[in-house]
């Protein structure tokens, strides 16, 4: 029998999140009750039950980043991405913001990590200012828009 955690990881890597249909499919394929599959998916923080953007921007909530202006970065990032109150994913589906614990590079605070939703690549950016965030976001957007239709 396939490990349900591995099945959930594989599905999330393929789709970016775990939809109800995906959970039902895993339940059926592994011959496990849907409640058990759902329980595993909601127990582990790594699993998402909502769609995310192509790139996930993890904002460090550690102490050093907090004292070095994390709130200013969050405010600018949200405004620049056009996120309304309560929203975490841009309307175009390119970016999602999430929060994370210390990345271990506190001397670069404030810090974000940008990762593609499939977890294939990630990059840390530090010493952030509104100007550097603008450049980072524009670069990722340009990269995304240069990907031929149908590749993702
Ligand atoms: S507190 Fe942000 S990287 Fe350590």
Considering the protein shown, what is the CATH homologous superfamily of the largest domain? Glutaredoxin
> What count of structural domains?
2
Low-confidence runs: none
CATH topology of the largest domain: Glutaredoxin
Which architecture of the largest domain would the CATH scheme give at its second level?
A: 3-Layer(aba) Sandwich
**Which hetero compounds are present in the coordinates?**
FE2/S2 (inorganic) cluster
**What share of residues are in beta strands?**
5-15%
CATH class of the largest domain, named: Alpha Beta
Number of strands: 4
Identify the strand order in the major beta sheet: 2-1-3-4
Please estimate the helix content: 40-55%
The largest β sheet comes out as: 4 strands, mixed
Note the run of SSEs as H and E. Answer: HHHEHHEEEH
Radius of gyration: 17 Å
Regarding quaternary structure, what we see is single chain
Amino-to-carboxy terminus distance: 30 Å
In round numbers, the mean pLDDT is 92
Going by helix content, strand content and strand pairing, the class is alpha+beta
Number of helices: 6
Q: What is the global morphology?
A: globular
Walkthrough of the structure:
This protein is an alpha+beta fold and 152 residues long. It has 2 domains: 4-43, no CATH class; 55-146, Glutaredoxin, CATH 3.40.30.10. It has 6 helices and 4 strands. The protein has a 4-stranded mixed beta sheet, with helices on one face. A hairpin with a 5-residue loop joins β3 (112-116) and β4 (122-125). The protein is globular and about 50 Å long. The chain binds FE2/S2 (inorganic) cluster. Residues 60, 62-65, 102-103, 105-106, 109, 111 line the site of FE2/S2 (inorganic) cluster.
